[in-house]
């Protein structure tokens, strides 16, 4: 079994009420279960953000390498905006 460590946390009143409400409503057996699930969700979200950051950094690195090698194209704001919209839609669906 995983090692357990007790932590004491302080929450704003609204968050504490939401946790207590989830427990009293029967969705969770304890406040600890609510917090554990929230932390699991946070960890997934953080991992996705790190992946997106790494992907953006790789794009920038490729662009800088292209610039250094003289591989340039004319600036096309419409094409860039469309690509940004596609990327944004993709990240919202993830």
From TrEMBL:
Residues 5-44 form the Ribbon-helix-helix protein CopG domain. InterPro entries: CopG, ParD_sf, Ribbon_hlx_hlx. This is Ribbon-helix-helix protein, CopG family. It comes from Azospirillum melinis.
């Amino acid at each position: 079994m995983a090692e357990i460590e007790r932590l004491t946390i302080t929450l704003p009143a609204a968050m504490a009420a939401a946790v207590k409400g989830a427990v009293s409503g029967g969705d969770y057996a304890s406040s600890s279960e609510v917090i554990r699930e929230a932390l699991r969700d946070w960890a997934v979200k953080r991992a996705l953000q790190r992946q997106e950051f790494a992907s953006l950094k790789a794009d920038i690195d490729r662009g800088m390498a292209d610039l250094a090698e003289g591989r340039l194209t004319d600036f096309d704001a419409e094409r860039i905006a469309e690509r940004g919209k596609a990327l944004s839609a993709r990240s919202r669906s993830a």
